[in-house]
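Following up on my earlier thread - several people asked me to post the actual chain instead of describing it. Fair enough. Here it is, all 382 residues.
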Amino acid sequence: MKVGLLGHGVVGSGVRTIIDEGATWEVRELEVTAILVKDETEMTDPRTTLNADDIINDPEIQVVAECMGGLEPAHTYAKRALQAGKHVVTSNKKMLATFCGDLFDTARENGVTIHYEASCGGGIPWMASLDRTRRVDDIVSFRGIFNGTTNYILERMFHENRDFADMLKEAQKLGYAEQDPTDDIDGYDVRYKVALSCAKAFDAIVDAEKILTYGIRNITAQDLQFCRDSGYACKLMGKGEWHTDYISAMVIPVFLHADDVFANIPLNFNAIESNSKTLGSAAFVGQGAGSLPTAHAVVQNVIDIWKDQDSEINPKTRVPIDNQFHQGIYYIRTVKDALLASITDQRVGDHAILTKKISVLEAENAIRTLADQDLFIAEVAE
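Reply from S.P.:
Thanks for posting it. Predicted structure:
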């Protein structure tokens, strides 16, 4: 099976390496025949091209692996490949979460498929596990640590009493965080992955921007000291829950009990769990990013296509996000804590409170009125 690569960066070069090395008989059935690169400085392989048409219009290429990143031209190239009757595999969570409805419809109209294992969980077979579970069971919810960068920062801060700014710089130095870390530390990366998990787990197309999202940008040593003293660990969690007519979905730091399976996930690892009636909880732990782990997931999808496995795209339905019935206790730190008296259960430090058990929307509405750019909020496990 001939494969065309769109992009030859961290992930794309990993895909090329795995297929070229051909470690298994399945991989040896694949061949990368064309590679789209950004400019002439990247044309170090005879298969490289600067023209996407060389891949999209090549009748011998059956699968296009989109590893470019960003919204455009990745979306346009992926759509054109589907319209040309080629299967598409993508690692681009932001692009797919933004345009999934359009691309799923285009794939179905042209009798091809779009696969996205690598877009969520890196090397963890998360999407494959959802497919397998759903052959027997309806999935009712999922939760997880979807971002290794934030997990690394929180782990180091928690165990070493380090400052957020120092840990972010170290994560950037190690290549775990981008120079512009906004998507990671503000929770947007997890938001895209939650949206794609909803598509796979619930056959639901959701508006990613409607997913309630809080990050860790403002977390301080004071917040983590409360965690330690109270027997908690802090993790940035993504969650989704099916309610037939709507989906509850959010991204939020959570203070987890020490015996929770997610409380002890180390450094830059990801861990994700699905819940269904007969299987119960099924959790997966592994590398959530990196060239070869993510490329491994891309190649797995290409092999799925070659073997004609997971070849049908189930019809997707647009489902609204509604968090009004999600209730919890929330830790909120803000210099304007006196204005939260109506939802405060107890004070737990300088300008920090625990709320009564309230809906997450009540908490959101309360803190929105404060307009405090340094505010930090976390859900507290009961």
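The longest helix spans residues 93-109. That should answer part of your original question.
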